Amino acid sequence: MATHILTGLHLITEHSGLKSVTSDMIAESVNTNPVVIRRLLGQLRKAGLVRSQSGARGGFSIALPVEKISLLDVYRATEDGSLFHFHYTEPNQICPVGCTIQESMKSVCSEAEEAVANVLENRTIANLAAEMMENPLFGERARAAIEAGIAPGS
Questions:
Q1: In 3D, which of 12, 20, 7 has the Cα closest to residue 61?
Q2: Residue 119: which domain range?
């Protein structure tokens, strides 16, 4: 959802003339409650990826050039800890599997997390937005949203 928020902020402000976007507008795109969006926007603001403006024309905007915001930045801003989680309670230490499984899995999980981080680090919000705009469905839906009066610039 955080990637959706940032990409939406970028595309809306880039193509509508708006300087900021409200959490209600974003929530409509994500199809969720604005409270959920505000929570994520708070995390993104804390990470320095978005800024907010209060007042009648207030809302949120991207704080950095989108070419500098990697998907790894977004992940780190919104997710806590590791991709993988071990047992919530300690496995049975008498069992030969229970006493060795976590130690054996540590290197596998570490390697997998490093691979995911490398992929996310090499993709930016700008890359994602450009890819989306090349999708024919993007243009069709943008036109339909404007005609329905539910998109900025309508």
A1: 20
A2: 70-123
Distance, in Å, from the CA atom of 96 to the CA atom of 94, rounded to the nearest integer, reads 6
How far, in Å, CA of 16 to CA of 153, rounded?
5
- Do 55 and 42 reside in the same domain of the chain? yes
Residue 30 in tokens = 């994500």
pLDDT digits (tens, 9 = 90+) for 33-78: 999 999 999 999 999 999 998 877 789 999 999 999 999 999 999 9
Number of domains in the chain: 2
Nearest residue to 22 (alpha-carbon basis) of 152, 153, 128: 152
85: left (phi over 0), alpha (psi -120 to 50) or beta: beta
Q: Which CA distances in Å does 36 have to 28, 29, 48, 78?
A: 11, 13, 19, 12
Contact 125, 66 (CB under 8 A): yes
Task: Give the Cα separation of 54 and 56 in Å (integer).
Answer: 7
Do 30 and 52 belong to one domain? yes
Kindly tell me if the per-residue pLDDT of 116 is higher than 90. Answer: yes
From CA 140, how far away is CA 109, in angstroms rounded? 41
